[in-house]
Amino acid sequence: MEKRAFFSNKILPYALLLPQLAITVIFFYLPASQAVWQSFLLEDAFGLSSEFVGFENYRHLFAQPEYYRAMMTTVIFSSSVAILSLACSLLLATQADKQLRGGEGLKTLLIWPYAVAPVIAGVLWIFMFHPTLGTLSHPIKALGIDWNPMLNATHAMILLVLSATWKQISYNFLFFLAGLQAIPKSVIEAAAIDGSGPLRRFWTIIFPLLSPTTFFLIVVNIVYVFFDTFGIIDAVTGGGPAGRTTTLVYKVYADGRLGGDLGGSAAQSVILMIIVIALTAIQFRYVERRVQY
Amino acid sequence: MVENRRYRNILAYLVLAVGVVIVAFPVYLAILASTFDAATIINGNMPLVPGDQAAINYSRTLFVGASRTSREPVGLMMMNSFIMAMGIAVGKIFISVLSAYAVVYFRFPFRKTAFWVIFITLMLPVEVRIYPTYKIVADLGLLDTYTGLILPLIASATGTLLFRQFFMTIPDELLEASKIDGAGPFRFFKDTLIPLSITTIAALFVIQFIYGWNQYLWPLLITTKSSMQTIVIGIKKMITTQDALTEWQIAMTTAVLAMLPPVLVVVFMQRLFVKGLVETEK
User: Fold this and answer.
1) Hey, are the CB atoms on B11 and A95 less than 8 Å from each other?
2) Do residues A135 and B46 lie in contact, with contact meaning Cβ atoms separated by under 8 Å?
3) In chain A, what residues touch B124 (CB-CB under 8 Å)?
């Protein structure tokens, strides 16, 4: 799509582009290419000198059992959050799609967690499930479970999944609701006239018609868990106990800052970049399909 | 709709009510905790109705801060967060409205290249290039400055794409008419384009303000002075792994204060918020 009418000025457009291009080059391209370059370097312990070591950082990375564990943690974490938050928000959205009295107010009450910072979400949930003072820890302990997300890795992961899901429901809810409202009512009415009940209508008509939204949300949720949950992890578990809730992004941070291993951290960054680019590419292919749809 | 049976609506209300309660409960607990003293919270049996310490907790949090950990008044942290969020929102709108104007309304060599150079940034969030960016900001002497907090976070394409998309829907006749009236690029921009874009600008502002206020990893890395801390950083520092040091009543009061501005923005500007959210994702 192009404009038929336009200005032809020799210098002005460059001046208009300058602020954004300057910021993009200095704070995006420069660091991104340095990350790639640094991933091929090995720095000495004092950061005084570095030598080119080729793929050594990568080889070292893939020899670490911790890296595979972080990968597994990321996969488990992101799939649990994606499934749980999509299921909850789809349920809420289908109910909110019915023309209810006070529906707008209910909608507002469901979407505001979007505005809560991930790290604050983490703080709220650790407070609620704190092993000694958490309000909800007592009922769990009363059931005979020795609840302690600070020592037990499974408990820590459950708490992370719950807090990350809590924060993401509002986003998914909004998009599902928009998707549901875009489905023509006539299609649903036709199916009802043919005698199919509400549940059957949902699975045979509504759910398939929602699939573009669902697919889009799956990708967005995975990206969300990859990057935006950094704050949640840092607040709830700090990657622990014993590194068992360290995700790929958290490891980039921890290795570079706490461990001082900048080459290894850069190599991890590069791998993450490749994953994100792949996910984005998948999303774009899907966007093209949606246009034909 | 098709069947308007009463029991189905009751079921819908029930499901939504449960959803609302689950969504609100953690925040309710935080608000509760901000009304008790430390001892009541620590013993683990916090009552489920508010206590009477709210005034003390809020005034201490805002003007004094936690005594054992982060040691800065939270009011100051909120000021820092506000400056950062405003800077990100305004800065991003400023650079992206200009670049979208150039890309849509001008023809010049390397126009497509410029667009792609900006577009590619969509793919890589700041988290994956965090240390090299840190190094550049440090080399520029921007650690512990608002500029250092703000600039790297506005280097992304979402705003440019949003404005480009909107400008494309503006009929060509408007520009043709302005040209006949003798308007140059500046007047067309000021008198026609900006007034038409007000809703889009407001929607982007809402989204970017929330994004900026909630930033965590970047400010965590580049602020070393405690006077430059944002509230989101401050609260994390209050929660220490050694439980004895955590002043929960102050931490939870801070949590409530940290949630307040962005939540108010979402609630009172819901329409703009939804518009901004849906359209920046397209």
Assistant:
1) yes
2) yes
3) 28, 32, 273, 276-277
Q: Which residues of chain A have pLDDT under 50?
A: 290-293
Instruction: Please provide the average confidence, as pLDDT, over all residues in chain A.
Output: 85
CB-count exposure of residue A108 (10 Å: 0-12, 13-18, 19+):
middle
Q: A249, B127: Cβ pair inside 8 Å?
A: yes
Instruction: List Cβ neighbours of A188 (8 Å cut-off, separation of 6 or more).
Output: A201, A205, A206, B1, B2
Q: In angstroms, rounded to a whole number, what is the distance separating the alpha carbons of residues A52 and A58?
A: 13
Whole-number Å distance between alpha carbons of B160 and B200: 12
CB–CB contact B216 A231 (8 Å): yes
Summarised one tens digit per residue, pLDDT across range B211-225 is 999 999 899 888 888
Cβ under 8 Å to B: A residues 140-159 = 150
Between positions 19 and 38 of A, the ones with CB within 8 A of B are 19-21, 23-32, 34-35, 38
Asked if A134 has any chain B CB less than 8 Å from its own CB, the reply is yes
Distance of CA B212 to the CA centre of its chain: 4
**Confidence at residue A290, expressed as pLDDT on a 0 to 100 scale:** 47
Q: How far apart are CA A62 and CA A264, in angstroms?
A: 10
pTM score? 0.89
Q: Which CATH class is domain B74-281?
A: mainly alpha
3-state secondary structure of A52: strand
In one letter, which amino acid is A67? Y
Chain A interface, mutation test: which of B42, B74, B98, B127, most A Cβ atoms within 10 Å? B127
The secondary structure of chain B as a DSSP string is -----HHHHHHHHHHHHHHHHHHHHHHHHHHHHTTS-HHHHHTT---SS--S-HHHHHHHHHHT--TTTT-S-HHHHHHHHHHHHHHHHHHHHHHHHHHHHHHHHB--TTHHHHHHHHHGGGG--GGGGHHHHHHHHHHTT-TTSHHHHHGGGG-SSHHHHHHHHHHHTS-HHHHHHHHHTT--HHHIIIIIIHHHTHHHHHHHHHHHHHHHHT--HHHHHH--SGGG--HHHHHHHHS-SSGGG--HHHHHHHHHHHHHHHHHHHHHTHHHHHHHHHHHH-
Residue of chain A with shortest Cα separation from B249:
A127
ipTM: 0.88
Domain ranges of chain B: 6-63, 74-281
Query: Of A165, A131, A142, whose CA–CA distance to A241 is shortest?
Result: A131
Q: DSSP character for A197?
A: -
Average confidence (pLDDT) over B161-167 = 89
Containing H/E element for A138? helix A137-142
Cβ(A183)–Cβ(A160) below 8 Å? no
Secondary structure (3-state) at A143: coil
* Residue found under tokens 């950062």: B84
